[in-house]
Amino acid sequence: MPMLNDAQKGLYASLFCFVFWGFAPVYFKLLKHVPATEIIAHRVIWAACMLLIFLAIRERRKLLQVLKVSGKQLLVLLFSGCLVMANWLIFVWAVNHDQILATSLGYFINPLVNILLGMIFLQERLNKTQTVALLLAASATVYLGWFLGQPPWIALALAFSFGFYGLVRKQLDVRPLVGLFWETSLLLLPAIIYLSTLASTDNSTAYNNATLALLVLAGLVTVLPLIAFNYAAKKLSLTWIGFLQYIAPTISFLIAVLFFGEVFTWGHQVAFTGIWLALLLVSGQPLAKRLQQKYRPA
Known about the structure:
Helix 1 (6-29) packs parallel to helix 12, helix 4 (71-95) runs antiparallel to helix 7 and helix 4 packs across helix 8 (176-186). The chain has 298 residues and is mainly α. It is 80% helix and 0% strand.
């Protein structure tokens, strides 16, 4: 069997993580009977534990050195941790309230929000294609809000919470998995206190063995695709990563409509079409240039 080159390994790793994320709503549907806040508390605890195990295996004697961050970085990581936890909470709540379609829309909008935040906070200039794409996406989102009678709050909250999370982490010189370890670890004590308080009251959810196993594995569901994503990011260009990232919300979209029977109204059709066109404009241009350079005759 021929050996895979770095690009092929990166491609398979990226496909794994994006397909995994695409099917994540199915997993959390199995925990529909557990309140979203409890799911996230468990997710924080078990993700922190599994990240520590993974980093200990990978770094061995260098673990303490790798985990070392400054006090200022810890404060920023606490803030970014709150942002990503809010994103997780909104996502799980939406999935368990039959709003997978809204989560899909949110993660389709997210790359365009990243461009907007880059323009506002990092003084990044937009080219004509990006400007047209942003206007098209904004128009599609406004139309959906008008059609529904209210803004698509779930999609916007997911897109902007993850957008601001990316903005904060972009400016912090901490490795991705190390950063996520500290983000979860800093919220570990509040999560344990929250679950302990619930357990001492009548508000606690009774877990059977299957539910408890699913809650523990939620940590692995968090960590495993992130490990694959970080590996893929080292092996593939950002252009390819940016293009492949739409696999996840596409799968979630298909699951919502075809398997869980969520209503795909005329307003959704118009909004999704507008946003897909915007994403095609944003992602298609750099991908086309890269392919042109790759296959240009010598």
